[in-house]
Amino acid sequence: MERTRLVFVLIILVAVAIIGSAALLSNPGSSDQGAADQGGTQATEMPASSVQVLVASSNTKQLWMDRMVAQFNAQQVTTSTGEVVVVEVEHVGSGSSMNAILEEQLQPVVWSPGSSTWVEQINRAWLDRNARRLISDECPATVDVPLGIAMWQPMAEVLGWPDAPISWRDLAELAADPDGWASLGHPEWGVFRFGHGHPAHSNSGMLSMIAEVYSAAGVSEGLTPDDVWSESVVSAVGAVETAVFHYGRKDTDLLGRMTLRGPGYLHAVTTYEGNVIRWNQEHADELRFPLVMIYPADGTFWVDNPFCVLNNADWVTETQIEGAQLFRDFILGREQQAQLIETGLRPALQGIPLHEPISLEYGAVPTITEDTVSALPYPSDEVVRHILDMWYQVKKPATILMVIDTSGSMQGEKMRAAVDAAREFITLMQPNDEIVALAFNYEVFSVGPSGLVGEVGEELRQSLDNLIAIGGTALHAVTIDAIDRIEAMRAEDLANGERRSYAIVLMTDGRNESNDGVTEAQMLSALPDGTESDEVRLYTIAYGEDANTDLLATMANRTNGKTYVSTPENIRDIYFLISSEF
Q1: pTM score
Q2: By the 8 A CB rule, do 72 and 332 touch?
């Protein structure tokens, strides 16, 4: 419990600076966004007498919300005192935006997270800090979208899709079976390879974890901490999490990896029905097979994306509250709600008939309703904290090799900020994660002790303080060295039957300057090819203007990792983003 509380505190402290600070590369397959998952702001020119209403809205309904903002602003709606209401929207992640709002780094008038469970969390935190709730008015639902599992159609059909009920228990049994898909007549597919969002960052990740617990406990309401920690629940959830080969901050990132790498990389990820529909519409030519939506027969979450006016926030005026209410009434109207269906989302307003693209053609089963797949209730904030504690214990541990550039160009603030960020990254890791640290200039050398974070983490953090900047940059040599080391560790773990995830986190502010004879081609040939989800992934950080961003992007892309561009001001944020991958 104490470990998780510490992680939560650090997440809140670190995430607040991320909004807009992480300047990242543009490759959609390997780059990342700021922790608020901003998808851009719909900016509108302000009339002379106007009031601005900023809406921080979950990514799930981005297409529809952009439409709503454009349509509403075009009508020039005015408040009771005559100001024209101008709405702008930022598309955000639920957990990250909550942290940013709590630290007042993100100050919207309206917050529309993925589900109502986030409202309870932010109100509890705001009450603790300010002796009042941030949101005291009702937060009406804007959508009614089922959470489920996106799976390649041939695999889903083996499980009985679209007619037979498929449950979390079925997936847990498949995950726990050492024969994997061979137990169902398809040995060519190997073991079950699953992915979901990191539950401390991702709404779909958090809800999928809660749904797993409900299923394992055999209940559909009244979940308690005792249920969470029961032997049967810990065992069943552990089986599913052992089959997780990739986490991340966003389910759409994982769908992108499935698209890029194909059925051999991941077999299924938790996501929303609308994302499956959109993926089949927009990526049909790239997909090896269509994706289909599995609706867990033992119950799932029908997310509501509540529309919450932050009526108790100091930065929100009465006029802005009125403007937000006018926009709320607009988007809850029948005509506007009906437009949700065109974007693959089910409306919150009942009685609107579903139609294309919510159909089998695009992987959805329109006959599925809350009468056929029950809606799970959101558990209390206390139970959610217990679920996260349990998840940290049963999730697949990580082995991370951290590589830090200590060449002469890292002198001064760059070195200090990099060390502080690396120290904090270690704190964000779990006690049973494994850490190895290397530093390099013209030479490569080990830093501090290596081993389980719970045993060596604090000593390693102190050892990092001794790093100094001197010499040149042997980028090619250190990359090969790091790969050799972590591959040896991985081979040993596999021989011992231990299942972990593996990654190299490489930070450098320069280009290869060494005359050691190690060429770029030799280095690239040494990289894993990224086709298997259990291979070593390389996360590269281009730290400063002189870094070879093209090469670092290639290294990350080839290993199915991610690449980032960083500065001394946001290097801590980048390490925080990387921590959500494990």
Answers
A1: 0.80
A2: no
